[in-house]
Amino acid sequence: MPPPGDLTCRNLTPRATTLRDPADPTPRNPMPQDLTIAVVNGPNLNLLGTREPHIYGATTLQDLHNDVTEAGQELGVDVVCHQHNGEGELVSLIHDLARTGVDGVIINAGAYTHTSVALRDALAATALPFVEVHISNVYRREPFRHHSYLSDIARGVIVGLGTRGYELALIALVEQLRA
Ligand code: DQA
Q1: Which end of the chain, N or C, is more open, meaning fewer C-beta atoms within 10 Å of its C-beta?
Q2: What backbone phi and psi angles, to 5 degrees, belong to 76?
């Protein structure tokens, strides 16, 4: 089981953008990495893969980070991944991400989604553009999961599409930031 904290997923290697004709002499990666997107996971998401797999699936947090980093490579963006169990740690992380100049955030705040005014305030204070993601469809679950302190200030929300939701959020956020 991966420990909570900052899992390395930064990948600065050149990337392919689409399938291409091998005879095409155009350089493979003409697009500079113009954006850095942080993927932030909250409490208990370090247990992905073993945590209630009937709800959250079999993908581990490391698999998720690898997949979203790969999706970032295809889009030509730098992806940095973090996971913390503590509310204060997540608040401080959001401050740090804003200070270090990330361009946007994809966040699954786990249970803090439903409880944390502090996390909402951190996202509002930094004005970081963010997409909220939930692996499970929270609206098909207990009523206390139906309220989010983040949704109304998010660029968008993706729920119930499994860990694929992170990649979809990345595509949409990058598209918006480049528009
Ligand atoms: C979750 C849904 C939350 O209600 C729950 O507390 C989580 C995970 C999801 O990804 O489906 O920890 O955010």
Answers
A1: C
A2: 80, 30
Residues with CB under 6 A from ligand 1: 44, 108, 110-111, 113, 134-136, 138, 145
**Radius of gyration for the alpha carbons in the chain, expressed in angstroms and rounded:** 16
Percent of the chain with pLDDT over 90: 81
What are 71-109's pLDDT values in tens digits? 999 999 999 999 999 999 999 999 999 999 999 999 999
Q: Which atom of ligand 1 is nearest to the CA of 159?
A: 11
CATH architecture group of domain 36-178 = 3-Layer(aba) Sandwich (3.40)
Domain boundaries, the chain: 36-178
**Most informative mutation of 44, 107, 113 for ligand 1 (most atoms within 8 A of CB):** 113
Mean pLDDT within 128-154? 98
What is the pTM (predicted TM-score) of this model? 0.86
DSSP letters spanning 67-86? HHHHHHHHHT-EEEEEE-S-
